[in-house]
Each structure stands twice: as C-alpha cells, then as structure tokens.
C-alpha cells in the first residue's frame, strides 16, 4: 500500500474547511514575517515574491502557488513593482488528526504547469465567489479541494516535493507515519480475515495499549475504526459488482456469518446490504 492511498481509503472521513479566501496587493516595499496557525495557499497573480526560510531563499513568480504549513516560519518580500495574490487559509483533517498533511513534504513553491486545469477552475470560481454569485461558496470549496488533491497526487507521482525546510516536529510526524507502513500492508493483505488489534500491534512491535494510542495520534482514527472503514469500502465495491451473495461477501471480508456482516454494514450505511444496490 502506498502511503497516499489513505486519502482514497478514508476520503469520507477527510474534512477540508476554508477559513478565509481573498486577494491582496502589496507595493514593492512590502515585507511579512509570519508563521500561520493553519495551512495557507497563495496563488500569485502579479509580480514576484521572495520567501526566506531560515537561511534558504526561494522565488515565486506569476502563476506559481506557495503552500505554507503551520510549522513554517517565513519572511516574504516583494520584488520589482510589487505583487498581487489570492490567499486561502484552510484546514484539512482526517478523523481527529487536524494536521494530516504534515506527514508529507508538501510545503513549498508549486509551478502552475503541475496543476494547470485544477488551478484554472479554482481561479474561475474565485472570480464568481468574489462577486457573490449564488452557490459560488460551495463551488469554491469543491474546486479548492480538487486543487489540493492534485498537489497531493503530483507528490505521490514524485513530480513535486516541497522545498521548505521542515522542523524537527514535522520530520517526527512523517517518521511516525512511515513506521506504520507494515501495519497498513498487513491489514490490506488480511482484510479477508478477522483482524485483531493484538496482531497488528505485534507487527508494529508495540504493546497493544501503546499501539492504539500511537495509531490514533498518527492517523486520527483507532485501528478498529480504520479496519472497519476498509471493510465497508470493500463491501460497497463487492455489492456494486452484483456477482456475490451476502454470505459470500461476509466470508470474503472475514465476518463469521451473514448476520454479523449485515449488522456492521447497516450500522455504517443505514440500510442493510440487501437493499443497498437496487
């Protein structure tokens, strides 16, 4: 399992909230020293911006995006005749994990060519949002979600790596996530069987109690909820195929009998599996 697969597997538990979205223009004398409390994405509309992080200097030009994470303390200044950009303060959480993006090296300057279509959709929708077009707020969130998803996709394809220096906390979060990779692989390989938390704690080399704590801190979900989510995702896919009976699906997902499976399915989807696909 690729680490980024978690965004697909747990997409229903991911929440993206836009805290503010606006545009601003600065003269060539502008300078800002800051560390954001949430994630921040700038879309450069005019001019150039110099970003200094510790001893490193980065340059963003018209068309580029700049993604800041809460761990990044920076100094931004304008070059030449000033600058103009759209900024979006946002939060992206997975379950109880409010900083799931910190597990990936995403903070940096993103060239427009990597996200061309998604960025254009966002810019077009932002223009509507700025002029109070009905329903544009919902469309703005949808287009912004697509833009962030594209950045993550390009990261997964090794087409992009954030250049901004990560502090020790961010690096630790990334390592915590990597250490769970054998656990993810084990769960995927044994999804057709009953999986006990004790088993996967052994895979991680931890006590059961500490493993539950560690897993939830890293993922935002308990191990049991994660396994349950994967089984329900798989159940939905198998039902849509219309090739298997409920008894067969129950067996394929490690449930002891159709009743146990139907009970778990109804708890999640609010309807029994027999009525899920018409």
From TrEMBL:
Coiled coil spans: none
Domain HTH araC/xylS-type: 181-278
InterPro entries: AraC-bd (IPR003313), Homeodomain-like_sf (IPR009057), HTH-like (IPR037923), HTH_AraC (IPR018060), HTH_AraC-typ_CS (IPR018062), RmlC-like_jellyroll (IPR014710)
Originating organism: Metabacillus malikii
Keywords, in A-Z order: DNA-binding, Transcription, Transcription regulation
Pfam families per record: AraC_binding (PF02311), HTH_18 (PF12833)
Entry keyword annotation includes Transcription regulation: yes
Protein's name in the database: AraC-like DNA-binding protein
Keyword Transcription regulation attributed: yes
